[in-house]
Amino acid sequence: MSDRDRSVIPEAGPIRDFKAPLVMADKLDNGLKIKVARAPLVPVVTISLVLEAGEDVLGTDHAGLAVLTGDSLEGGTKKWSGSELASQLENNGTGLSVDTDWDCTTVSLSCLADRLDTVLGVLAEVILNPLFPEDEVNRFVSQELALIEQRKMNPGSIASNRMRKMLYGEMPYGRPLGGTEESLTNVNPEAVLNFWKERYVPGGSGLVVVGDVDMSEIKDLTSKYFSDWKGLAVPGSHPKSESALNPKKMFLVDRPGSVQSEIRIGHIGQDRSTKDYFPLIVANTILGGAFTSRLNANLREKNGFTYGIRSSFQYRRSAGPWGVSTAVGTEVTADAVREAVFEVEKFVTEGPSQEEIESSRDYIAGVFPLRFETTDHIASHVVNTLVYGLPDDYYQSHRERVRMVTQDDVHQAVVRCIRPDEMTIVIVGDAESVKDPLLDLGWGDLEILE
């Protein structure tokens, strides 16, 4: 038997050295950027093609078109039908992953290194020669419409959708990423084909490859399959909000008989290029980004209002939202709102303690290597350097930059970037039960929505 006193919490050991993989960069004559990160200890290679085909380039009438175009790539090519394409992927031990967000569309595959040539050829066929058959496009539109119907019944989705609308109004970020029932009526094979012609082009796009490979090999293969690809996509832009649309307002979406309330608190946040990025990731860990955060300590541990509460900044090319989200019992809705607002206001006014700074920095630095465990994890970070114009060695110094953040850095960033007087609050719950307690808070105007 060990004589170790197990009632004593072991001290944390020193943070181990870690360096993110080096990134090599080049490009083809057609403008296609190439980035390669070596991961020599694994036999798997991940390929990610990043396209200037995000939802933020689309107007209201065509919302969801970028998402549906990406989804419809699985419908087949000039060479293969949809089922034949699936067989090609399966025979090479890979699968097609398409992710469309506000800033870009990323098409990814992972395979064994000895299949790289063949799989890159499959990717080229998918990107350069898609067919977008009517039945496949209609199937994906129907699936998206079904998801919209499901979200109408989900109080969490209702709260998030309402919050976006209250923060951004008619701007792109004010709508669901996948579009609306109205906009999806305009999605058809012709619209998808036109979007593909305009946005699926090499100029502005980039190919990321991670594995036991070198740049010369990847450039030769990329040239083999993509050198004849032509075109230039201009990065999308949309108007930035000059001021908060609904500051110091509460919106209560009535859900009669609901035993829980979904709560969203927030305002427009920061874009990915903000100079406050590193202080803010430390700040958010302290406020609501970790289980040990202030918000969780208050609403979960101290008061037992919720199983969990979190805060987050959603960094995009333009300013994404900052917010707090949770779900609580109907009977404690107003109390939960009061305590969440209290914690936010206190954090802005007083700032963090030095102990919180040190703990948060160590946590972020400690888990950082876990984000580079696999080739697809590494690829996702290299993709970020393309999308947000970060330097190739950005992640080499990431941990050090986090650990250089000071108590004053965090407090100044919080004062600039978290603005309690501009916060909007959305609650989805039983209006009859929660309306009066919310009004008694005296926090701001309350509007009840059906």
Can you describe this structure?
This protein is an alpha+beta fold and 450 residues long. Helices cover 41% and strands 17% of the residues. It contains 16 helices and twelve strands. The chain has a six-stranded mixed beta sheet, sandwiched between helices. It has a six-stranded mixed beta sheet with strand order 9-10-8-11-7-12, sandwiched between helices. α1 crosses α7 and α10 (294-302) packs antiparallel against α11.
Topology:
Elements: E1 23-27, E2 33-38, E3 44-51, H1 65-71, H2 82-91, E4 97-100, E5 105-112, H3 116-128, H4 134-152, H5 155-168, H6 181-184, H7 189-199, E6 206-211, H8 215-226, E7 249-254, E8 260-268, H9 277-289, H10 294-302, E9 309-313, E10 321-329, H11 333-350, H12 354-367, H13 375-387, H14 398-403, H15 407-417, E11 424-429, H16 431-440, E12 445-449
Parallel strand pairs: 2-6, 7-11, 7-12
Antiparallel strand pairs: 1-2, 3-5, 3-6, 4-5, 8-10, 8-11, 9-10
Helix pairs in contact: 1-7, 3-8, 9-12, 9-15, 10-11
